[in-house]
């Protein structure tokens, strides 16, 4: 098990290095004219030369690459100041260090992701399991019907409706906003509850359908029939035998969803004007702020790899056949 | 030998010596295309300590019958009529909670493919210990010890250690042994074996059959053995019931059915068996046609569309009239007893070598 984890972590570090290299060569070394993007409009030749000097673009590519990669591990010094590790560069526009900008925004994204995941796992998977347990009854029909309707909704459709009802026309709640949990846990909870719930609603619908079909598939398995033939009760068989098998597809999709949400829930953040990683990525791309874009990309890649390892470890806990192979 | 003296469909009370009695069993599945009568008026008895072999092609209703005995059919889509008596206790109307206490305890089942039939998520030992703990109220430790003992009994080497393994760490034959240990852990009076050797290679198959016979002697269970392999049935069964399209078409003792088969379908099964001593260049002779759809089964004798002997009956009896399965040693066919005897002796047996 430990060896498996070590191997996977090592693999992830190598992959991350390759992604870093690819990012660097795409943005900096490729003929994208990094300096003139940094310089902006109405750029004088003198200023352009200064910027090239300041960004170290006159150095050989290998040297630049080394500076970029080693900066991530040890930090590096820019003319405007020191950039502590992990240094992802300095934004062209704000002049802030990319890493600290990301860290400022990350709690918003983290709240959305973790809060959303808890809601859609409990409600979505719960409803799906219940529907499978009471297959073809009213409960099943309601759960299936509701998830069909909800999964055809979009966040930018449902979001404004919820805001109009709960905030603008009734004033029952305040406009969603992010308050750091360390400052005011209650304010954090209330401020983020609408975005989290709206986003989770869309996911809930998908997870309900997935959990239901996965569970129904498991209930038809031979091993489930054997457990019943042994005289174990239906409920016991459902929770001890079928449930465990049905988790595997759910964990797979959950891993993909969580890693993409941690890389930025763009639509949710835009809908509720929240300043998370998603908005940062959009800002980076639209303003051609290359260091910021590269930083957010690497950050997202890190989470994809990290969650992937977590997913694999989870498989091993669910299914002993994974453990030894 | 079990008593096979009842006429199909007739509600005769079970004899005192018959342990399991099935009377006029009808199992109907509701499907999208309409009701499918998978079992249609089946009656049989199994005596304690004896083995009944049920033979038939896929879809003849063998497995359905036995899943129904254990109450493992889906109650939402399945209608069951008739009587299933386990020592006089009617099982069809028994509530699920009570059935749970019988399943795995007084009646147990061995399934065909031990790889998919065992759960990949729990150790072999635990899967054996679990029903013992539930049915006897033993402690976890006692149940585990019992599982280790059972593994030893079915011939798993080093059972103490192997009990901690997961099914995927076992070989095919060992998995089936574990499956048998699981079925026998509570000393069931009735054991249903649904093609327990089909997924195994021949040497392992022989070992498993020997094991089952030994265990039957030791525990005195009644066994219902489902298979499509007549070679296997000759080895293990005392009596045979041949099923076709949801009905019994022939029954008798092993010797009677295999040495003087009376039904054209049984003849077909015998003919399609490969023999080591026959001319290798001769192709096997399959039964012509395919099993009928049970959505709209053939009228009269269900075998008539595939039967090569229906001309000898003459007229349209085979198409119109359902042949009755008589008392004891009997076959459901319109041929006269004399015809059955002479056809078997003159046309069928010589071909069997």
From TrEMBL, chain A:
Alphabetically ordered keywords of this record: Cell membrane, Membrane, Transmembrane, Transmembrane helix, Transport
List the GO terms this entry assigns under cellular component, sorted alphabetically.
plasma membrane
Q: Which InterPro entries match?
A: BPD_transp_1_N (IPR045621), MetI-like (IPR000515), MetI-like_sf (IPR035906)
Question: What residue stretches are annotated with the ABC transmembrane type-1 domain?
Answer: 106-315
State the signal peptide span. none
Name the protein family.
Answer: Belongs to the binding-protein-dependent transport system permease family.
Protein's recorded name = ABC transporter permease
UniProtKB/TrEMBL annotation, chain B:
Q: Could you tell me which InterPro entries the record lists for this protein?
A: AAA+_ATPase, ABC_Ni/Peptide_Import, ABC_transporter-like_ATP-bd, ABC_transporter-like_CS, Oligopep_ABC_C, P-loop_NTPase
- Domain of life (superkingdom): Bacteria
GO MF annotations, alphabetized: ATP binding
Residue ranges of every copy of the ABC transporter domain listed in the record = 22-270
How is this protein annotated for GO cellular component? plasma membrane
Chief location of this protein within or outside the cell: membrane
Keyword annotations from UniProtKB, A to Z: ATP-binding, Cell membrane, Membrane, Nucleotide-binding, Transport
Location of this chain's protein in the cell:
Cell membrane
Please name the Gene3D superfamilies in this protein's record: P-loop containing nucleotide triphosphate hydrolases (3.40.50.300)
Q: How does the record say this protein sits in the membrane? A: Peripheral membrane protein
Could you say which protein family the record assigns here?
Belongs to the ABC transporter superfamily.
Q: Which NCBIfam families match?
A: oligo_HPY (TIGR01727)
Q: What is this protein called?
A: ABC transporter ATP-binding protein
Species name: Streptomyces doudnae
Q: What is the lineage of its organism?
A: Bacteria, Bacillati, Actinomycetota, Actinomycetes, Kitasatosporales
């Amino acid at each position: 098990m430990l060896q498996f984890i070590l191997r996977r972590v090592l693999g992830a570090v190598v992959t991350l290095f390759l992604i870093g290299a690819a990012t660097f060569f795409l943005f900096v070394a490729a003929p994208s004219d990094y300096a003139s993007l940094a310089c902006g409009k109405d750029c004088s030749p003198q200023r352009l030369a200064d910027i090239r000097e300041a960004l170290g673009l006159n150095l050989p590519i290998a040297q630049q690459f080394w500076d970029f990669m080693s900066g991530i591990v040890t930090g590096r010094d820019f003319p405007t100041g020191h950039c502590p590790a992990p240094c992802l560069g300095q934004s062209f526009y704000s002049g802030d260090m990319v890493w600290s900008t990301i860290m400022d925004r990350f709690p918003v994204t983290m709240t959305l992701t973790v809060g959303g995941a808890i809601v859609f796992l409990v409600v979505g998977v719960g409803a799906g399991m219940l529907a499978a347990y009471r297959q073809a009854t009213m409960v099943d029909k309601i759960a299936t019907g509701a998830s069909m309707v909800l999964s055809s909704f979009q966040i930018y459709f449902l979001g404004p409706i919820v805001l109009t009802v709960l905030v603008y026309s009734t004033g029952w709640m305040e406009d969603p906003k992010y308050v750091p949990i360390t400052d005011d846990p209650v304010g954090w909870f209330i401020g983020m509850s609408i975005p989290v719930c709206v986003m989770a609603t869309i996911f809930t619908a998908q997870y309900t359908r997935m959990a239901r079909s996965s569970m129904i598939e498991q209930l038809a398995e031979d091993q489930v029939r054997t457990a019943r033939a042994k005289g174990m009760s239906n409920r016991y068989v459902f929770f001890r035998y079928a449930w465990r098998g049905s988790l595997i597809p759910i964990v797979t999709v959950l891993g993909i969803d969580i890693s993409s949400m941690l890389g930025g829930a763009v639509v949710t953040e835009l809908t509720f004007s929240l300043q998370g990683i998603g908005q940062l990525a959009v800002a980076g791309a639209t303003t051609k702020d290359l260091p910021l874009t590269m930083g957010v990309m690497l950050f997202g890649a890190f989470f994809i790899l990290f969650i992937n390892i977590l997913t694999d470890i989870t498989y091993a806990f669910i299914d002993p056949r994974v453990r030894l192979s | 030998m079990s008593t096979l003296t009842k006429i199909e469909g007739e509600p005769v009370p079970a004899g005192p010596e018959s342990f399991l009695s099935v009377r006029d069993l009808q199992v109907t599945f509701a499907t999208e295309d309409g009701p499918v009568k998978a079992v249609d008026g089946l009656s049989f008895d199994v005596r304690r300590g004896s083995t009944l072999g049920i033979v038939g092609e896929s879809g003849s209703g063998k497995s359905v019958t036995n899943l129904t005995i254990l109450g493992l059919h889906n109650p939402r889509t399945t209608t069951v009529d008739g009587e299933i008596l386990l020592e006089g206790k009617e099982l069809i109307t028994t509530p699920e909670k009570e059935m749970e206490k019988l399943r795995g305890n007084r009646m147990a089942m061995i399934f065909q493919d031990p790889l998919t039939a065992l759960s990949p998520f729990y150790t072999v030992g635990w899967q054996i210990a679990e029903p013992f703990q539930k049915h006897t109220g033993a402690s976890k430790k006692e149940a585990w010890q019992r599982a280790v003992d059972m593994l030893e009994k079915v011939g798993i080497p080093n059972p103490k250690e192997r009990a901690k393994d997961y099914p995927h760490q076992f070989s095919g034959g060992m998995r089936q042994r574990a499956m048998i240990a699981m079925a026998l852990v509570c000393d069931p009076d009735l054991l249903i074996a649904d093609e327990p050797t089909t997924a195994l290679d021949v040497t392992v198959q022989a070992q498993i059959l020997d094991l089952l016979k030994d265990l039957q002697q030791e525990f005195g269970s009644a066994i219902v053995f489902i298979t499509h392999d007549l070679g296997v049935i000759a080895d293990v069964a005392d009596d045979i019931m041949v099923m076709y399209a949801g009905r019994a078409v022939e029954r008798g003792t092993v010797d009677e059915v295999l040495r003087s088969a009376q039904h054209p379908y049984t003849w077909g099964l015998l003919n399609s068996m490969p023999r080591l001593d026959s001319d290798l260049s001769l192709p096997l002779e399959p039964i012509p046609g395919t099993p009928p759809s049970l959505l709209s089964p053939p009228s009269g004798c269900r075998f008539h569309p595939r039967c090569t002997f229906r001309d000898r009956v003459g007229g349209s009896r085979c198409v119109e009239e359902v042949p009755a399965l008589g008392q004891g040693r009997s076959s459901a066919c319109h041929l006269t007893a004399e015809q059955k005897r002479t056809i078997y002796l003159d046309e069928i047996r010589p071909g069997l070598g």
